[in-house]
Specification:
Layout: E1 4-23, E2 26-38, H1 39-45, H2 47-58, E3 63-66, E4 69-72, E5 79-81, E6 103-111, E7 117-119, E8 136-148, E9 151-165, H3 167-178
Parallel strand pairs: 7-9
Antiparallel strand pairs: 1-2, 1-8, 2-6, 3-4, 5-6, 8-9
Length: 179
Amino acid sequence: FPSHDISGGGKISFPCLVEPRSFQNTGAPKYSAGLFLLKDDFNKSGLGDIVEKLADEMGFNRPVIRGGREVSLAWHNPIKYKEEYVRDDGTTKIPPQLQHLDVVYIKASTGENYKPKVVGPDARAYDESLIQAGDICRLNISIGSYAIAGKNGITFYLSGVQLKRHALFLLQILRKKVG
């Protein structure tokens, strides 16, 4: 699948753009970024349809026979809808300021040898260390599938990040409107 630009943008979370890190010190270090998108913007992007089409092509949605009965093949979907983004204790992982919205969460990453391109609002090179959680960003991703050692899924590879607006800038605008 070609690269896909999530042009509406969303609220970036856990950006790891300066140096690759491994999650909880397990696995290979990666550059990564999560993005909370409004569900309407996500639906307009067509990303969900692309993931479902790829899952169908890979046979992930096709029932298989296990132990004499028909079961669905378990596969990792990189898209988390609001109702799926819940901890074991029932509390949500969605930031408080987004909990009243209908949001979708995606995460994209790339290996330590493939640093994503980071640009500012004017599409010029930008200091990646200035992008913080809560900033409004666009992601450029590539979509891939895998079937390795009994694990199946779809993944998003992070190719680039564009800062659209800093969260602090949005907070200043809101304060001016209120005060």
